[in-house]
Amino acid sequence: MLIDWFTVGAQALNFLVLVWLLKRFLYKPILDAIEAREKRIAAELADAAAKEGEAQKERDEFQHKNEEFDQQRAALLGKATDEAKVERQRLIDEARQAADALGAKRQEALRNDAQELNQAISRRTQQEVFAIARKALTDLASTSLEERLGEVFTRRLRTMDGKAKECLGEALKTASQPALVRSVFDLPEEQRAAIQNALNETFSAEIRLRFETAPDLVSGIELSTNGQKVAWSIADYLASMEKGVSELLKEKARPDATTEPKPEESKPETTSQ
User: Fold this and answer.
1) Residue of 145, 158, 153 whose CA lies nearest to 197
2) Mean pLDDT, the chain, as a whole number?
3) How wide is the angle at C-alpha 213 spanned by C-alphas 212 and 215, nearest 5°?
4) pTM (2 decimals)?
5) CA 238 to the chain's CA centroid
6) How far apart are CA 37 and CA 62, in angstroms?
7) Residue of 99 and 122 predicted with greater confidence
């Protein structure tokens, strides 16, 4: 069988033309389209991956923030709970202290009321006793008793020494008015002269005196000048005794009193007015 090379060449040429045409107008556009689609898909996949990465990052941040928020909320809740417990305990302690203080105050008030009542009763009894004693001694006072007290007062003036004598002497020297001698009854001229002489001799000076009666005194004589006073009377004994009894009652009224004060010895009064 003979081969027709012309036909074979024509077919080969047709085949090559067909391949070129297919490649030019069919395969290339298809490949370009496929490549473009692949690029677009790759870009979309890359964009989706980027967005997914951002979404994951945002999700992680949100979760982290949620965890921090939960931790802060738990910390604040724990702190608030602790503060509430502390405040509750503080209020309970304050209420307990206030209740204890109120109870102690009421007890103290009751004790004070009882002490004041006891003291008032003691003072009233003391006042009544000494008032009766003063009245009895006043009723028993007489001119002869006053004369005897005048003699004792004069002797006391002559025997004065120490600080009392110094203070009285200074007061007599600096006084602008005569010294005042008070007694329940009018003193006879003899006693006035004896008192005058005792003062002149004791202080080596001419002492000016003024005599007057004082019904409020209880059998006694009192000399006062320029803020200084010397007295010798039964009233002094009563005052000294009354003072000692008052101090004794005060000591007994104290809850922590362990010792009793000794009563003062009776002595002539020398005070600053």
Assistant:
1) 158
2) 77
3) 155
4) 0.39
5) 43
6) 36
7) 99
